[in-house]
Request: fold
Amino acid sequence: MKHTLSHFIFILSLVVSISAYQQSGLDLSFIDEINREHAVDMFTPDDNVRQALLDLIEAEPKHIRVAMYFLIDPQIIKALKEASLRDVKVDIVIDPSCPVRGIEKLGDDVRVNIYDISSGIMHHKFILFSGLKVLGEGSYNFTFSAQNKNRENFSFYLGTKEHGFCQKKYRNFSKRFKQLLGHSVSYEPDRMINQESAIA
Reply:
């Protein structure tokens, strides 16, 4: 009887978990692919980089770090905002020339920190998911055009100790993000560092 009850409780909890994922719209197939392949290369407009990012943002339980030249895709901004509302910390370093549209929706949340690079052009394009131990990096800006019009690439790496190359990349980009924070100031919309930034 005791065994039957525990089995029933397990099945019930499994059904509830699956139902919750279905209701949230979270597609775990891409996350499963990363766990299986350890590294996944994607190319727009053929591959849906945006959806992969949305799935990872929704699944991340702890901390998201973004280094991005332009961050104006409304779907990604919305997903980052929702992540912050479930107590996921979000740190973003962007270029001062990044348009204000969309970013202002993130800046009023205590769990979201937005920074400008203090010198030069911030042309990095990568994202780190601390809980999932996933790095995403490539030419893809977080914009509508990057997904729908441009020819861009973005690769995802599972940075766990079982996968040496991927782990090294994850650690290197984590160190680089920390260095970027050391060369950043609080975000000021449309602040242009110098003439070089204005023509980039």
